[in-house]
Amino acid sequence: MISAFKYSLGIALACLGGVSIYAQESAMEKRQQMVEQQLAGRDITDRATLKAMAKVPREAFVPISQRPFAYEDRPLPIGDGQTISQPYMVAFMTQALRLKSSDRVLEIGTGSGYQAAVLSQIVDTVHTIEIIPSLGKRAERILKELNIENVQVRIGDGYFGWEEKAPFDAIIVTAGAESIPPVLVDQLAEDGVMVIPVGPHRGIRQLIRLTKKKGKIRTRSLMEVRFVPFVRN
Ligand code: SAH
Fold first, then answer.
1. Is the C-beta atom of 108 inside 6 A of ligand 1?
2. Could you tell me if the CB of 52 is within 6 A of ligand 1?
C-alpha cells in the first residue's frame, strides 16, 4: 500500500516536473521565435541586444493573467495603468543607445523592470527610477528573484535624474515626455546618448536620440511612437 502510494506520488511528481520543464522549454522557444521574427526579422541587428532579448524571461515581468501573451508583438498591461513596452520597442531603444559593456546607464520609468533587465545583460551598471512605488518595488523583487544584481531601483521622480550617480553614458526614458528634461541632459556624460519619446500627451510622439559631443547637443528623430505619459509629482 505504502509502496503503491509512493509509486503513484513518484509518477505525479515526475509528471509535474515534466510539465514545468515543458513550460520552460516552450517559453524559451517562444522567446527565440520572438527574437527571430519580431526583432532580427525587422531592423534589430545589434548582437548584444538580440542576445539579451533571447535571455531575459519577459513572462516573469508581467502579471500572471498576461503570461500567455508574454511573447506577443505588443505592449501589455502591468497594473496601475502602466504598460510593459512591445518587445520590438525595448530592443529598438536598447540598440539605439549603442552601448559598451563598461557604460553606466540610467533608465527613467522602471515599470515592470523588463527593460532594465535587458540592459543589465549588456552593461555593468544600470540605475532605474520609477515614480509609482508599488511598481518600483515589484520590479526590484522580480530582478532579485532572477538573480540580476547589477540594477539599482529608486522610487522617485525621474525628472531630476540621479545626481549622486551621474554622469551616465546612456539615458533611456521609457515614458513619453512633453519636452526633454534639462537635468537629464546635464547628467549625460561626454559622448553620451539619450533616447527619449517626446511630444504632446495623448498624441504621437517622436522617439528622439540625443547625443552630447564636446558639450554640443544634437538631436535626431528615429521614429514615431506612442508611450504612457511621463508624469510629475
Ligand atoms: N520600462 C518599463 C515600461 C515603462 S512604462 C518596462 O520595461 O516595463 C513607463 C513607466 O514610467 C511607468 O511605470 C510610469 O509610472 C513611469 N514614470 C512616468 N513618469 C515618471 C517619472 N517622472 N519618473 C519616473 N518614472 C516615471
1. yes
2. no
Domain for residue 132, yes or no? yes
Distance 86 CA to ligand 1 centre (A): 14
The CATH code of the domain that includes 146 is: 3.40.50.150
CB 188 within 8 A of CB 212: yes
The answer to whether residue 58 is domain-embedded is yes
Domain that holds residue 79: 9-225
How many structural domains does the chain have? 1
pTM (two decimals)? 0.90
CB 93 within 8 A of CB 195: yes
pLDDT in tens, the chain (233 residues): 344 433 343 334 344 444 455 566 589 999 999 999 999 999 999 999 999 999 999 999 999 999 999 999 999 999 999 999 999 999 999 999 999 999 999 999 999 999 999 999 999 999 999 999 999 999 999 999 999 999 999 999 999 999 999 999 999 999 999 999 999 999 999 999 999 999 998 889 999 999 999 989 999 999 999 999 999 87
Nearest atom in ligand 1 to the alpha carbon of residue 129 is 24
Q: Catalytic site residues? A: 85
Closest ligand 1 atom to the C-alpha of 158?
23
